[in-house]
Structure formats: structure tokens, C-alpha cells
Amino acid sequence: MSEPCHLNLWVREDHKGFLETHYRVEKTLFSEKSPFQQIDVVETAGLGRMLLNDGIVMLSERDEFVYHEMIAHVPLFVHPNPRRVLVIGGGDGGSVREIMKHSGIERVVMVEIDEVVVRACRAHMPDVSCALDDPRLELRIQDGVHYVAQCRETFDLVIVDSTDPIGPATPLFNRDFYQQAAALLGPDGILVSQAESPFYDPELQGPMLRNQRPFFARLHLYLFSTLTYPGGTWSFGFASKGPCPLVDFDPQRVAAAGLATRYYNPGIHRAAFMLPTFVRDTLAGVLDPLGWPDPEPR
Amino acid sequence: MSEPCHLNLWVREDHKGFLETHYRVEKTLFSEKSPFQQIDVVETAGLGRMLLNDGIVMLSERDEFVYHEMIAHVPLFVHPNPRRVLVIGGGDGGSVREIMKHSGIERVVMVEIDEVVVRACRAHMPDVSCALDDPRLELRIQDGVHYVAQCRETFDLVIVDSTDPIGPATPLFNRDFYQQAAALLGPDGILVSQAESPFYDPELQGPMLRNQRPFFARLHLYLFSTLTYPGGTWSFGFASKGPCPLVDFDPQRVAAAGLATRYYNPGIHRAAFMLPTFVRDTLAGVLDPLGWPDPEPR
Fold first, then answer.
1. Which residue in A130, A161, B27, B190 has the fewest CB atoms around it within 10 Å?
2. A24 in contact with B at a CB cutoff of 8 Å?
3. Which top CATH class is A64-282?
4. Min CA distance, A23 vs chain B (Å)?
């Protein structure tokens, strides 16, 4: 080793006491305790910059495109004509960045409870937060639960880009919140929500989806890959007032839109809704059949 | 804490110096240095028993069903009438366990270089190694490269269930090996091979697939979820002398077979071949178009 000696600095994330993921850190870029949580941005050795809330990895620059493309483009290409979107959480700006790629979007309201997240990402994650100054965006620093309870606007999509159901995001997994969010949606409205790990968190997924069930005509789950959430594979809930994510999906619309994406494409759109047998079994009775491409395969 | 004080024992896996995954270990069950590698079986706190070769996680009881179902059932349900299968590596027995679920299988030859892997898994992973005494299996402790070079049998499938292209498995990623393996396959023959991480290992995937390219009519890649390989999402190469993994796939065959699977089903079969845009771009010119379900979507 001819290199000078560097500090051997690592950030460590615990998962349920039996699994730890450690990322080598070059330096800390941001560190501040907000009224809600500890916010840190670090420069890692292998995953670009990383945002952590209370020591839990929220996103890395290396893989955030997957999460943000999948939370945004899946519902945007299912809703017949999405113009108005409500984002709950999502303070890093990645979801808004993807939503704004759709030329039909007229208005986005983003309600983030913690201004420190927004400030940290504006300062240190410019490739993620780059659309936060889009004139179509109204950015509100406010509790999303309170906003939804008093809101009188109608939206085409509600995107719940939240942390886990511990800490400030807990009420975003409750029945009352889903009922109020559903009430803001038009007849083709869709609510997409961060839905944890199908491998590690089935005990969170079932109750969360059951809390959405009464307020939507269709309920589905879709999967995507991450590098920084425990177990890699992660999920979003897809709760719809009307459109089916597969039958009402037209790949030609994706081709015509010509968006620059690195993960999302029509094949991935459909594939994401194909669930492993153990996930189907765990959520039997909660999720709706897809009716595509076969009469519900086993 | 009223519990007695336990040894705080962890196994640590390094990935390229920037990422470490640590698993809490209850106890070590097996530890032996073979002529090829160090073999360990540990009882973990969250993932059941775990096999490590040279400190690299090979499998855990908690997620091994995904890898083994996907390496076996995907080609077995694409080949029109698979009866004879050659497995290179796979000493834990998981792939053989899944292959033997197919009633049409008449003969499986498994060629594992390291008898210590087989012995460790027979002793400590009975749910994985349970089919190693199936009378249809010929288990050979031999170098797979040498076996393939001198073999005069014909097979319907070759399954390369290997470790990474470092250590004893390195020649299994070479052009000569693929040429000789392809020569053992009948006209509908398929070779499936462990193909690393699409996120972390594109520099391994390209050369590996290019080495297969000259000897097969169709070359594809398919994805699956793991809990214990870096980044979670992992891949198999699918090299075929004839059948297309989607057009020649009949979900009714899966339904008729009625196999007990926890991950694999017809939806997952098709979904696995839908690749993220960045993977397609990275492997453009190497992989064949799928022609399903649309004219190759973007």
C-alpha cells in the first residue's frame, strides 16, 4: 500500500439484530438533528452519496433511479391522463424528478414533514433534488396526514414516498390516512405507497394493504430491485379506484413518451406485478387477481 | 437483558472493499479446509444455516429456494421433453432437489469438484441435500471442466451451478468450457449458468455471455431475488440451441405438473426475462430479442 493512511470510516445499518450492512464512507457531508429525526448525507466509497434518516439508509445515488422510476412511472403510465399528483414525503425530490418528466403533468403538490431532508438533498444531492424548483411544483413543509385531512383538491395520483412505519411516517400506514387520501382521488385515481420487503416484512405488508382495501376497487403489489434496502427486493402497493395496472397499460404510450429511464420499460412494468408464490400465498385474499397475461397463473 | 451473556459472533462478507454484510451467528457447525477452498456451515440468527466457501456466502436456508427453483424450473419448463440433465457444481444438492421434482427426469449427472461441500451439506443441510440419494442421480466428484471435455453422453440441459469466476470455478466461465458443454446438448438443449449481479458485475457478465454466444442459437439473461448475494438481485444466463424461453413456454405445463414451489410460477418465469433498461443497454448486441409479449419493448 503506497497510499497514505485514511480513516477507516464505515456507516452501519442494523436489520432486526441479525443482519448488518456496512458501507465504507469517504466523508460526512451533512449532519443535523431535525425535530423529527437525525439526517445525514455521507459520501460512500461504492454507492455515491447516501442519505440516512436516524441511521437508516433512505437512498444512494447509485441505485435511487430504480426506486424513483418505479414509484412514478408505473402509476403515471396506468392512469389514462395524469395531470395532478400529490406526493406525501419524498423530500429528497427523486419522485418529483421522475413525475416531471411527463409532459402532461400540470400540478404536483409535495408534502414533506421535515424541511431538513429537503435542505440536505438540495445542498448535497443535486441529481436527485434537481426538479424541486419546477414551477409546476408546490412544495409544502407540513405533516402529510394533516394535509390530506384538510385538503379539498382532487388528484389523479397520490404517491406515498415514505420512510418505514416507525418514527414520523407511522400514521401514513393507517386506515384513516388511506381513507382520506382515497377521498382526494378522481374516479381513475391511483395511490402508490412504499410497502417494505416481501421477504422480511410480511407482517407489515398485510396490515398496510388491509388498511387500504376498503377504499379502492383494485389492490396490487409490485416489486423492484434496490441495492440498499435489506434483502434487495422491495415493493410498492398499487391501490386503484379503477384502472388495472396491466390490462389498462399500453406500452405504446411509453414508447411515444420517450422518457429517459434506466430501469423502467414496458417489460419491467408488467414483470413487476408478477409475484413469487410465497408472496401471493402470504397476501392471499388481500390482493386482486391480475387477469393478465393468463387466467391468473398459479 | 435477563438473558445470559452470549458470544457476539458475526460472519462478515466483503464486497469490493466498499460494502460488507454481517450475519449474526449462533454457532459454527462445520469447518474444513478442502484442497480447493475453506468450507464452513454456520447457524445464523436470522437466515437459518448458511454455507460459505472461502468466507463467501453460497446459500442460506432462508432464501436458497429462490436460487434453486429458478436455476432448475425455468429451463425444465422450456425444454420440450427434458429427461437427462448435467449439473456442473451444485454440491449442496439444491438444484438436484428441484430437478428431481419433474417426473420425466430419467438421469441426472452432477459433477462437483469438492467432496467437502457435498459432505458438509449432507451432514448439516438436510433440506437442501435431500435428493442426493435419488437413484436417478449419478454424483461424480470430479473437475467439471475435465468431465465435459471427455464426456460422450448427450443431455437435454446443462446447469452450471457454480461459484464466482475466482477460485476453482474460473474455468467454468471460459469459451472452451461452453463449447464443450454445448457439444453435449441435443438440438433443443439449454445451458443455464450462474451469471452474477447485473448491478455490480457487468464487467463479468459481458465476457461470460460473449464466451457462450458462438455455440448457441439464442442467448438470454434472467433475474431473481436473493437475500444473501451483494445487491440482492442476481442473474442466470439462458443459452439455448433452439427453444425460446417465452414463446416456447406453456404455463399449462406448469399447472399440470403441480410442483410445490415457493418462488417459481408462470408469471415469475416470464417476468424474470424482462430486464431493466440499464441491463439491456449494457448487454446490447450480446442478448437476443425476446419477441414477447410485444415486439421488443424499449
1. B27
2. yes
3. alpha beta
4. 5
- B86-135 confidence digits (pLDDT tens): 999 999 999 999 999 999 999 999 999 999 999 999 999 999 999 999 99
DSSP symbols for A104-118: T--EEEEEES-HHHH
- Chain B (104-123) residues lying within 8 Å, Cβ to Cβ, of chain A: none
Classify B10-58 by CATH class: mainly beta
Q: Which residues of B112-151 are buried (b: 16+ CB within 10 A; e: fewer)?
A: bbbebbbbbbbebbeebbbbbeeebbebeeebbbebbeeb
- Residues of A within 8 A of B297 (CB-CB) are 251, 254-255, 265-267
Cα nearest neighbour of B261 on chain A: A277
Low-confidence ranges of chain A (pLDDT < 50): 1, 294-298
Tell me: the pLDDT tens digits for B133-165? Answer: 999 999 999 999 999 999 999 999 999 999 888
Whether B4 shows a pLDDT value over 70: the answer reads no
Interface probe for B, chosen from A227, A259, A278 (most Cβ of B below 10 Å), is A227
To which CATH superfamily is domain A10-59 assigned? Spermidine synthase, tetramerisation domain (2.30.140.10)
Task: Tell me whether A261 touches chain B (CB under 8 Å).
Answer: yes
Contact between A94 and A128 (Cβ < 8 Å): yes
Q: How buried is A111 (Cβ within 10 angstroms: 0-12 exposed, 13-18 middle, 19+ buried)?
A: buried
In which band, very low, low, confident or very high, does the pLDDT at B298 lie, cut at 50, 70 and 90?
very low
Decide: A128 and A61 in contact? Cβ < 8 Å.
Answer: yes
Closest CA to B234 of B44, B66, B40: B66
Locate the domains of chain B by residue range: 10-58, 64-282
- Binned at pLDDT 50, 70 and 90, residue B295 comes out as very low
pLDDT at position A2, please? Answer: 54
Chain A residues within an 8 Å CB radius of B232: 225-227, 231-233
**Angstroms from B81 CA to nearest CA on chain A:** 21
Q: Which pLDDT belongs to residue A293?
A: 54
A247/B contact by beta carbon, under 8 A? no
Which residues in chain B have Cβ-Cβ distances shorter than 8 Å to A23?
A: 18-19
Residue of chain B with shortest Cα separation from A292: B267
